Amino acid sequence: MAPNNSKLLAALLHFVLLYFVPLSSLSLVSAAQKCGLKPPNSASSAAASPAAAHPGSGPYNNGSTGCSRNGAMIEAVLTGWYPGWLAPSIPPSSLSWDKWTHLTYSFALTGLDSSTVILNSDDQQVLPTFVEQAHTHGVRALVSIGGWTGSMYYSSAVATAENRTAFVGAVTSLVKQYNLDGIDFDWEYPNKQGIGCNIISPADSANFLQFLQELRQDPVGAKLYLSAAVGISPFMGPDGTPMTDVSAFAEVLDHIGIMSYDIWGPWSSGIGPNAPLDDSCAPTPAGSAVSAVAAWTGAKFPANQIALGVAAYGHSFRLANQTDFSLYAPFASYSNPLVPSSDGNGGVDACGNPATGGGGTDDFDFSQMITAGFLNSNGTPASGITYYYDNCSQTPFVYDPDSGVVISYDDTTSFAAKGQFIKDNGLRGFAMWEVAGDEHDILLDSISQAMNIEATPQPRYRNFVGLHSHTSQVNAVRVDFSNGTSLVLVDTPGFDDTEKSDREILKIVANWLREVRQYQDSNRNKLEISGILYLHRITDNRMGGTPLKNLRLFRKLCGDDFLNRVCFTTTMWAESENDQWENAFQKRQAELEATFWAPMIAQGACTRRFRGTQISALEILQEVIATAADRKRHQILEIQKELVDLSKRLPATRAGKELHGIIEEMVVKQTDLLGRLQSEMNQTSDPQVLRELITELNDLRREREKALKDMRRLDLWATGMEDELWAEQVVALYEEIQSIAVDTNFIQPNIRFL
């Protein structure tokens, strides 16, 4: 059975950047210059040949990829809003963090003063915990500004250049104070009334765009993840009708979340679906996911920057005639709300008006439907409850004949339908209002699985901090997108591998690269290596000896012309649990960049730090792919050019000769040790000193002999004449060492040095 590509993506990123952290391991990233709109339905895993050996990539624990504002790879969005007022009963620590890529804290509010963003005192206490939990689990932490009750002063905050600059300052101050990863702008609505007392202006949408553009110019704002919660129609233009071109917003926003719910409710003329997937069967179309996505994409907003808003709640109605339950039937007004208010607003709304129903609500969270007896604990209809599913709108309804109450809501079937819609239409993902409304992740798992995203917790980097290499061969996975482009991620064994010698590693990597190059030539294939991640443990205390030799070998393999596609990436930063370690690692990073990597950085190589989170891994890959898009196309590694274009044997390549040079250095060191040993024998009678020198010489001899045997076995030897020369040197050195051993009283004459 072919593996699921979304799962492969998630696993592969963990393996390469979160799991395989051997010193000097390589990750070869290959990507087309376009971006796919949707994950594949299936893919075949493959080994071996370049046609099937393919690097794949997936940024988060949940998987799929798309395209960012700058053309780099992006992750699927599995997000939702967390209402801060629910913290006393549902604290941030209780959320299933590992099933989300982003979570948004709701709400901060706009105020009369554009230079401030308002957080009430309770939110100020809860938000730091929310952010800490998000970052612990590798999830982006955002704060939503606005909402139904908090959008009153949005219009004035962006109305003038002075106000926009002040509002940018307020937003970035909020970000820095709480260590946020992004902001969600929930303006309900530009140039359209929401709650009833919002300030609105015909210039709202244009001013909002200018504000976002200015925010992106700010050093803090440039790095933020920015989203916007939007209605089912594009932003309103100055004439009060939806804009026909909102493409400029796509340049400054990472995604929009279309709030395709609250379509039918107690304000409607009849009982209708709260969040219909389609509304083509409604007597009076009021909106749906299908029509909303069509409206936004028709206004030139990219589909792969759209997250579909999904509802973990439903609206209830009481039938006017308890024997007449039918879709779009009239309903009676409530005299008392069925569900008490949980938002702390009591009986007054944000405009100061008495709230409908005395502060209660006719809404039921999915979890409240279980508590109230409409559903069983697994989300299925309870005994005595009538269940009806409208196939046209893909909406379930439950009806209690005893009370005459009908609830339009979402269940696993409707969420799966929406997940399929997201996948089929290449959307970015989904945004759930609200995450605490689900019960045991019943809805979350349903929509994730329908998108081919495994909604199960993945182990984090901290669980995989062993010092051994876990890659013994070139491993690669390819992900094909709907527009015919591909993204490929390759993981190679690293030099200083714990099971294979550097000679074996070079041959494995070189042979794979040669096959890739030959395949490109024979098939005129446009697959190219976009970048290389060179992984180095920041926990290693020194950089000398073998690591330096391997660094030279790596440079010869790449060639100077390819170094502008190399990114030196330090790992194990997750181990810096206190300031002392962090400071030590910072100094070590500076030393690496200023000394050991400096010549290659001068040739265009970059450096990055992997912080042990999925966000950090994604950002590194984004950087490499974005950088590759700006480089000259069809660059190849030096060793590919030598092996294929120049038809050289591996021993004759620059990398192959470097191996010979390493062995020559062993000979020099061995000769030096021999001289020191002879000198010590003439000057001291201390047996311990002599034993230590002979032990060191013996170890070096073994290392060199192993290297020579590897070179011959792997056909890395250059010429027979050199072979004979090496053999003569080995015999001569052996005889000298043996004679020294016999001359000492503390070394047995039959001691072996091989």
From TrEMBL:
Residues 76-454 form the GH18 domain. GO terms for biological process: chitin catabolic process; polysaccharide catabolic process. Residues 1-31 form the signal peptide. One of its GO terms (cellular component) is extracellular region. It catalyses: Random endo-hydrolysis of N-acetyl-beta-D-glucosaminide (1->4)-beta-linkages in chitin and chitodextrins. InterPro entries: Chitinase_II/V-like_cat, Chitinase_insertion_sf, GH, Glyco_hydro18_cat, Glyco_hydro_18_chit_AS, Glycosyl_Hydrlase_18, P-loop_NTPase. It holds the Pfam family Glyco_hydro_18. Keywords: Carbohydrate metabolism, Chitin degradation, Glycosidase, Hydrolase, Polysaccharide degradation, Signal. It comes from the Eukaryota. One of its GO terms (molecular function) is chitin binding. This is GH18 domain-containing protein. The keyword Hydrolase applies.
